[in-house]
Specification:
The chain has 422 residues and is an alpha+beta fold. Helix content is 47%, strand content 20%.
Amino acid sequence: MKYIYSILIFFLLIIIYPPILYANKEKCQSSHQPQWVLNPLHDKQNYYGISSASFINHQIDYQTIEQAKNRAIKDLSYGLSVNIQSYYEEQLTSYKDDEIKSSFMLSARLVLNGIKVYEQWTDCKEKQHWVMVSINQSSADKQVKAQEFINQVLKCLKSGQKEILKSIDSMNEIISMRMKRIERQYEHLIKLSKVLDNKLTTSLTQKEKNYRDLIKHIKMLTHQFNQSQQQKNKQMSTMINVQQQLIKDVETISQHIQSDYFLSYINDDVAIPKSDLHVRIVPENGRKDFYEEENIRFWVKSNQDCFIKVLYISKTGKEFMIFPNSHDKNNCLKAGVQKTVGERNDLTVIQPFGLDTVTVIASKTQFSNINEQLKLNKGIYYIKRLRSPLHGVQTRAIGVVEKLSFQVYATDTCYIVSHKKR
């Protein structure tokens, strides 16, 4: 009889209060911050909304996940409402600007179908759960330009003043949260520009000059951002316009970063949370320019005993695991001891010429896939074709044991410029 009662109580718990069981399953595990938290995705297929919610007791609960999801949906609806207002401008001239924006956001949440969770991430250190939602762009455009949508907007404006006031409060909350996110993005960009500045040499190719221009651009935008933060008591419409410009500026830089291999890897190096393990890679003697048929070498050093992989990414997206390789399989690196990668003169400059990216991954434990990769070597090196810079960043730490604990690995990146024979 006790056994039957236990089963009944268990099923009652599932029906009455699923969050309790959900929370027990979702224990917080540290993981590497995904790029979309700082650099939101932008493409022609989807619209995105991002937001977060805080939690306590070192574990995620059902309410936190739902709150983050609902905030992300509001963020997406808000973004759409700002973008589409001009489409209906002539029909809404008799209403106040904040009421129009509020009714657009409210209507988008009520009318839009097809919003789904695209990705989630938990920041255990800051105790924040992040959610990114998306909706198909063409589907959303059709829905907001349909008669049903403008009817809902007009209905809200004419009879839903109470809801509009609530929605205005929600908009103020979203504006505040977006500004905090923008602030995080600018803090990250400042760190990125400093690291990038240290990586560049005085003698620059056009590609490197573009990186210098990017550093200057980040400094200028950061100055503008700081000025916007000092202006208090702005009207909602002014705040929205300022914020939209800041977001647009960050989006432009993000797109630039995401289209470039070296910038993407450096950006990820900066985003990885600080660890007590540090690793450094530089071309031998700090030299950056190499010519056809010359041998290339790299110096790698870490502050702790660790295991390393060194990946060479050509400008075309071909990735070579240049260390370990068929000639040198021992990838254990002793603390403070400098390792020369390419010491057997097996790295030679070949076409295509240009700026190539070289990155090192250091792990406190041996990589789980290292033997498999060495078996699949084509000649000396394991070779892989990358679909994009983002694909390279996402896959470079595969094989790190206990990857969910960001304390067990570290990365660093450098570059060389290859030229045709003089």
